[in-house]
Write a structure and sequence with these properties.
By secondary structure, this protein is of the alpha/beta class. The chain has two domains: about 190 residues, D-Maltodextrin-Binding Protein, domain 2 (3-Layer(aba) Sandwich), CATH 3.40.190.10; about 100 residues, D-Maltodextrin-Binding Protein, domain 2. Helix 2 crosses helix 8, helix 3 packs parallel to helix 4 and helix 5 packs across helix 10. The N terminus is likely disordered. This is Phosphate/phosphite/phosphonate ABC transporter substrate-binding protein. It holds the Pfam family Phosphonate-bd. It comes from Streptomyces johnsoniae.
């Protein structure tokens, strides 16, 4: 069982505004010739749903990381992926949970990071997921071609499944940005719900959000929406650590994130109660990945010539 936390959980899990000028002391402090070895590690992430309590979802991981490293871990909630990128670039975040595109932008624009792991739905799976396009059932929108002249919801310009891969799909269908009205919804759930509520003619999000999570939560009915498009498999959303930490600390974090950030270990060590309580974003846990696993994202960037991709070149 884990030892008693060094700080009250409310203090450890306080969600600090991810505004760089107001973050207080930088994660870049406590450095030496051997690298940084801070007393407090900062973990940056964004919620996939507007209403999701990020602190509750990450609490088992934070408890485990504290036990493994002997350090305090603070969670910073970002409003978008750009904030996560800039936090790690500025030394305000030591551990960052990215989307595939935001990882590519961070890596290729010179952020000092090491990719470590990505999530899998079930133990033994390969990391990856799909983007889908959804429309209201009976709307007559059954393919990308039908989006011409319509209002289309996307998640975030740094979102792989909520923007980049759908943009590539639209290009393949012969549609440019001038052929439809683009609306930025802000979250995967918001994109889907905007379609269900009639605010958008169609929208894009992760397959799991559109076909499972919102149905199970009762926010949409199982037959309310039609899936008219799905992407190729997208590499899993990775977690990366800052590369200026000491070798020992980086190795400890790598081992913890690759081998102990999963439902089985978290439950066995008493960090969570089991079942859904131990799942991370609905996934069993994290497994090792490398930069080479994200070559297909760079390929889609080359196809779309997306401005967000160019930010990382």
């Amino acid at each position: 069982m884990p030892s008693t936390p060094r700080l009250p959980r409310a203090a450890v899990l306080a969600l600090l505004p991810l505004v760089l000028a107001a973050c207080g002391s930088s994660a870049a402090e406590d450095s030496s010739a051997d690298g940084r070895d801070p007393d407090t590690l900062v973990l940056a992430a964004i919620p996939s749903e507007e209403s999701t309590a990020l602190a509750q979802r990450y609490e088992p991981i934070i408890q485990m990381l504290e036990e493994e490293t002997g350090k305090n871990v603070e969670l910073q909630q970002a409003t978008n992926y750009a904030a996560v990128i800039e936090a790690q670039r500025a030394g305000k975040a030591d551990i960052a949970f990215y989307g595939p595109l935001s990882y590519i932008v961070a890596k290729d624009s010179g952020v000092g990071l090491e990719i470590v792991a990505a999530p899998v739905a079930e133990q033994g799976d390969e990391p990856g997921y799909r983007s889908v396009g959804v429309s209201r059932a009976g709307s007559g929108i059954d393919s990308m071609d039908d989006l011409a002249g319509g209002e289309v919801c996307f998640v975030d310009e740094n979102s792989t499944s909520g923007y980049l891969y759908p943009a590539a799909g639209l290009i393949a269908a012969g549609l440019g940005e001038g052929d439809y009205a683009r609306i930025t919804a802000g979250g995967h759930d918001a994109s889907v719900l905007s379609v269900a509520d009639g605010q958008c003619d169609a929208g894009f999000a992760t397959e799991d959000m559109a076909t499972r999570q919102l149905v199970e939560s009762g926010q949409i009915g199982a037959d309310d929406l039609t899936v008219f498009w799905e992407s190729a498999m997208i590499p899993g959303s990775p977690v990366a650590i800052s590369d200026d930490l000491t070798d020992e600390l980086r190795q400890t974090l790598t081992d913890a994130l690759q081998n102990k950030t999963n439902a089985d270990h978290l439950e066995a060590q008493g960090y969570c109660a089991g079942g859904e309580d131990c799942l991370i974003e609905g996934n069993w846990g994290y497994v090792p990945v490398s930069d080479a696993d994200y070559a297909s994202v760079r390929d889609v960037c080359a196809t779309t010539r997306n401005e967000q991709c160019e930010a990382g070149s």
